[in-house]
Design brief:
The structure holds two protein chains of two kinds. Chain A is an alpha/beta fold. Chain A has helices at 50-57, 80-90, 106-117, 122-135, 151-163, 181-198, 209-213; strands at 7-18, 24-35, 39-44, 65-70, 73-74, 91-94, 169-173, 201-205, 217-222, 225-228. Chain B is α+β, with helices and mostly antiparallel strands. The chains are: A alpha/beta, B alpha+beta. At the A-B interface, helix 2 and helix 3 of A face helix 1, helix 13, helix 14 and helix 16 of B.
């Protein structure tokens, strides 16, 4: 059934309020469909709710009304544990900062989500991790501590980690926000390649117009609503 | 899947522990110190308790039956006029002998009870031991020496001579070591004793015993019961005390009560006779457990603090782990594993430290003086205290680790990931 539909993510009338300091509607009836293989950027002025929307889509924020469906699974109303398992299997994350675990090597960092999933043997996971690292040109740094890498390299390792479980969707929150223009270009090219070659779906929140312009689809948000998409 | 999850939590916990070795070692030292001191303290305290209990038991029977003539009794006036207002000033005990009537029958009756391990008749009397012009006050016990041995294991307490010598030599006496020293007598020497009634008799020392308590060794000697009857000029059935050893010592109170109501003689159990000793045991136990508990709680606070700090420093790691699909319980187990590892390893080292300390204490010379014969500290190496120690330690660290771990499990990843 799910194989027939060609969208990977769909929301219906997502509404969210902030209650602190006073009640404020941050998301107003957001309905969005993201197709498989689409490279989508989510832009808008700061405070427009784009990050908030992304965290709702990420399943980490469960305090909303409306419906969220990813990879053919209805996620609204699921328990935190089920959602954690779901994220592990179906979603990869790239943030503004790399958030690599500093005590572990590059290879171990990439392997952790796969070890958590436990679908493959350790040897296989290691093999896959090296494969992902080589896609990103990082295989020769596999045994290094993450703190020994440059910012751009760290971000590439974080992308490899997001890819390890072959997720249905990669979500990025300002993935180039902390990088210089050269490294931003590198990260964008990687995303581009992933979507065109590997048919990877990517949703990236960004305020970098250069970055957004080059994506397949730009969703502009304003005052908690989708202005253009 | 679950097993994998635990393996992963375990390896992350392990990396956290070894990446901050100083912090880990300090947390462990807290537990090590707590448990080490607990073991050392408990070993010494229970060693002392056991030792004093043992020597007290060797000098007092489980139940002692005697005629208590000082027991308060109703005056004649009160007997005749029970409802009136009576006043009898300074009533003295009746002029009764200390003898137990029908003692032989009593003995036979008591021996039939299968809760009894040994029953020994005793005839005790104050005597003077004459040492040249000096008269030493003391006690002579007329006993059936082999029965007495069953109760107090006298054979093991003999320093010179054998118990059987008393049987073969009717006019013999086995003397306490302290008394023998004061009188300057050795085995084979003769001593002259004088009864309160003024009779004297010369007896031959056939053996010397040492129980280990000054108050016994310095005054007591054993002789054949018939010999003492002769010295006191009493007949064959004259017995003043019956000593009983039970199969189960803890029944003493109950059995003593039964015997007292049955025979209407005073039957005193060992707990009542040694009430001060029991109080000492209780107080020592309270102190030991209070001190150890405090030490472990302090160690627990140490672990609590260190884990709290670790979790505070690892907020980002926790957030990303949760984003990547670690559930709250996985995160909790990472930190619980750390605190349990600290507790277990610290505790095991603590047991080792405790054992070493106890062994050192056991070798330390200690002079018990005249009161108790002791040349080093008595130390108990009972394994139950080691098991108690490690369980105590692990439970404390589990409790101390649970609160910070739960906090880590409840970290909201969004707050950290989007905050910057």
């Amino acid at each position: 059934m799910t194989a027939i539909v060609n969208y990977v993510l769909r929301t219906q009338d997502i509404i969210k309020y902030f209650y602190d300091p006073e009640k404020f509607q941050v998301l107003k009836n957001i309905s969005l469909t993201v197709n498989r293989g689409e490279f989508l950027s989510l832009v808008g002025k700061s405070g427009c709710g784009k990050s908030t929307l992304m965290y709702v889509l990420s399943t980490m924020d469960t305090d909303y009304q409306g419906q969220l469906e990813i990879a053919g699974m209805q996620l609204t109303g699921k328990s935190q544990n089920e959602l954690a398992q779901f994220r592990n299997r179906h979603i990869g994350f790239v943030f503004q900062f790399h958030y690599l675990l500093p005590e572990f090597t590059v290879l171990q960092n990439v392997m952790i989500p796969a070890l958590k999933l436990g679908q493959f043997s350790n040897e296989e996971i290691e093999h896959r991790a090296i494969e992902k690292l080589s896609v990103l040109g990082m295989q020769e740094h596999a045994k290094k501590r993450t703190s020994k890498l440059s910012g751009g390299q760290q971000q590439r390792v974080a992308i490899a980690r997001a890819l390890i479980n072959d997720p249905d969707i990669i979500m990025g929150d300002e993935p180039t926000g902390n990088l210089d223009s050269y490294n931003s270009g590198v990260v964008f090219d990687i995303f581009r390649e992933l979507t065109s070659v590997y048919k990877q779906t990517i949703i990236a929140v960004t305020h970098d117009d250069e970055f957004a312009k080059k994506t397949d689809r730009v969703v502009v948000m304003s005052d908690g609503q989708i202005a253009t998409s | 899947m679950n097993l994998n999850s635990y393996k992963l939590s375990f390896s992350i916990a392990w990396v956290h522990l070894v990446s901050k070795p100083k912090q880990t070692i300090i947390a462990m030292l807290g537990v090590t110190f707590g448990i080490g001191m607990f073991i050392a303290l408990v070993s010494l305290m229970t060693g002392l308790n056991d030792f004093t209990e043992e020597i007290t038991m060797t000098s007092s029977p489980d139940i002692h039956i005697y005629h208590d003539i000082t027991e308060t009794r109703l005056s004649i006036l009160e007997q005749i006029n029970p409802n009136g207002i009576n006043r009898v000033h300074h009533q003295k005990p009746k002029d009764e002998t200390l003898r137990l009537r029908n003692a032989r029958q009593l003995l036979d009756l008591i021996r039939k009870d299968d809760r009894m391990q040994g029953v020994a008749p005793v005839l005790s009397s104050q005597v003077f031991y004459n040492y040249g012009p000096v008269q030493l006050n003391g006690l002579i016990l007329g006993v059936e020496i082999l029965e007495e041995d069953k109760l107090f294991d006298l054979k093991a307490k003999m320093k010179e001579g054998r118990l059987e010598d008393l049987l073969s030599y009717h006019e013999g006496i086995i003397m306490g070591s302290g008394l023998a020293k004061k009188l300057n007598v050795k085995k084979g020497d003769r001593v002259v004793i004088t009864t309160p009634q003024g009779f004297t008799r010369t007896l031959k020392v056939v053996g010397i015993f040492q129980i280990g308590i000054g108050t016994v060794d310095n005054v007591r000697s054993y002789a054949n019961i018939s010999m003492v009857q002769t010295i006191l000029q009493e007949e064959q059935s004259y017995i003043t005390d019956i000593n009983i050893k039970l199969k189960d010592r803890h029944l003493a109170k109950q059995v003593a009560h039964e015997l007292q109501t049955k025979f209407s003689y005073k039957a005193e159990d060992w707990e009542t006779a040694n009430a001060t000793f029991q109080t000492g045991v209780t107080i020592r136990n309270i102190i030991t457990y209070a001190v150890s508990f405090t030490l472990l709680i302090v160690a627990g606070f140490g672990i609590y603090n260190i884990l709290n700090m670790t979790i505070y420093n690892k907020m980002k790691d926790i957030a990303i782990l949760k984003a990547m699909g670690f559930a709250g319980k996985d995160v909790r187990s990472i930190f619980m594993i750390q605190s349990l590892a600290i507790g277990l390893v610290g505790g095991l080292i603590g047991l080792l430290v405790g054992f070493t300390l106890s062994s050192l204490i056991a070798r330390a010379p200690f002079d018990g003086g005249d009161v108790i014969s002791l040349d080093h500290f008595p130390v108990n190496f009972d394994s139950t205290y080691y098991i108690t120690g490690i369980i105590f330690g692990v439970v404390t660290t589990a409790v101390a680790g649970y609160m910070p771990s739960r906090k880590a499990a409840q970290v909201d990843p969004i707050e950290i990931l989007r905050g910057q």
